[in-house]
Amino acid sequence: MRAATLLWLLQLGCADLVPRVVIVTTFPPEFARWKRLLPLDEELPFPGGGGSTSLWWNSELHVLGMVTGMTSKNAAMSVTALGHDQRFDLKKAVWLLAGIAGADPEAGTVGGAVWARSLVDGTAVKFLDPREMPPAWPTGWLPQHRAAPYGQPLPSEAERQQMVVSLNPRLVQWAYKLTQSIQLPDSEALQHLREQYHHLPAAQSAPAISLGATLSTDVFWTGSFSASWARNWTTYWAGGRGTEGVPQFAASAMEDFATAQALAALQRLGRSRGPEALLVLRSTSNFVEPPPGRSPEPNMDFFLEVACEAAFLVGEPVVKALVRHLASQPLKWWRRPLTPASSFVPAEK
Ligand SMILES: *[C@@H]1O[C@H](CO)[C@@H](O)[C@H](O)[C@H]1NC(C)=O
Fold first, then answer.
1. What is the DSSP letter of 278?
2. Where are the bilayer-spanning segments (predicted)?
3. Checking CA distances to 200, which of 82, 118, 249, 273 falls within 20 to 30 Å?
4. How far apart are CA 17 and CA 87, in angstroms?
5. Cα(130) to centroid of ligand 1, in Å?
């Protein structure tokens, strides 16, 4: 009895599994390659998650993989459930969200991949139907606490922090440098699609890896007006423009901002390093607007497997490099305060 109590006390605060990397995907097709090829072969039940699927574990690499379920609520629910799961100690983990997204043809092409520098929220929005809004407005989507689209004054720093998460620039830059010259698969079908995007050099170039902002909404939107809104909204909140003078908006997704918010809450509880230890990789399965001269359709040309393949090809070397780096960290790290970001950015080769 006493021995059992002692054992219990020893186990308390000393979780079994200490992931080095947590791979976050949002629905099963995104997860399939990680499970089969990394591999993630040990099944761990996870009834509290939003994705209604198990967690999967690789005990050699100490890598955990999850499927959150799509949309911001499932992402937040799953990351939070995992963060409070007593089987894991996640204080050391780096998180990689690797999912598919819609590409802005002004910023990239289908089959490419974006390392997110910032995550912008597009769910906390006021909406007037365009048929009822003032005729001079370009959109019915408004910021909260403003009376017009992109209303003045520009967001305060406090407002910005509610709507934008800037990821750890050193970690993002490291991941980008490690992967930027990876050759991504191309095909005649992709070429045929992108040829239709006249005058948009980014859309017409071969699939490549880039940096940019992702916009998270719970709506599968498509069309030129929405794309224009996404660019403007991203600039309004994330400020300025990208280094090349183009809007920072690169990819349209659902779960990025909510995942970062859930990690920030776990950080406040001392259970994770928060968004500072988060990488978001979005490979692109479709364009967010039709080619010039065509109307949007509910089902745009959609390259699911191409995008899932790209996410794995770009994400896997980053996971392996993080594992190598984190494996060489001191074992009794949990006795120390959470270490600063610089300690988990592997040195440049
Ligand atoms: C985006 O901003 C541009 C430049 O201010 C404007 O012309 C356009 O109408 C805006 N688009 C939307 C949909 O808000």
1. E
2. none
3. 118
4. 6
5. 14
CA of 137 to the centre of ligand 1 (A): 9
**Is the CB of 224 inside a 6 Å radius of any atom of ligand 1?**
no
63/319 Cα distance (integer angstroms): 8
Q: State the number of CA atoms in the 13 A half-sphere of 67 facing the CB.
A: 20
- Amino acid identity of residue 31, one-letter, is F
Ligand 1 pocket test: pick from 104, 133, 232 the residue with the most ligand atoms within 8 Å of its Cβ. 232
In sequence order, the 6+-apart residues with CB closer than 8 A to the CB of 168 are 275, 276, 277, 278, 341, 345
- Write out the two tokens for 295: 């109307």
From ligand 1's centre to the CA of 139, what distance in Å? 8
Give, for ligand 1, the residue of 141, 228, 248 to mutate: max count of ligand atoms closer than 8 Å to Cβ: 228
Identity of the amino acid at 312: F
Question: Which has the closest alpha carbon to 193: 283, 100, 291, 96?
Answer: 291
Angle at 97 between CA 48 and CA 179, to 5 degrees: 155
The closest residue, in CA terms, to atom 13 on ligand 1 is 229
Beta bridge partners of 101: 284
What is the CA(337)–ligand 1 centre distance, in A?
47
**With contact defined as beta carbons under 8 Å apart, do 171 and 344 qualify?**
yes
Domain 18-332, CATH class in plain words: alpha beta
Helix segments in the chain, DSSP class H: 2-11, 28-37, 72-83, 157-163, 169-179, 188-195, 201-204, 224-238, 256-268, 304-327
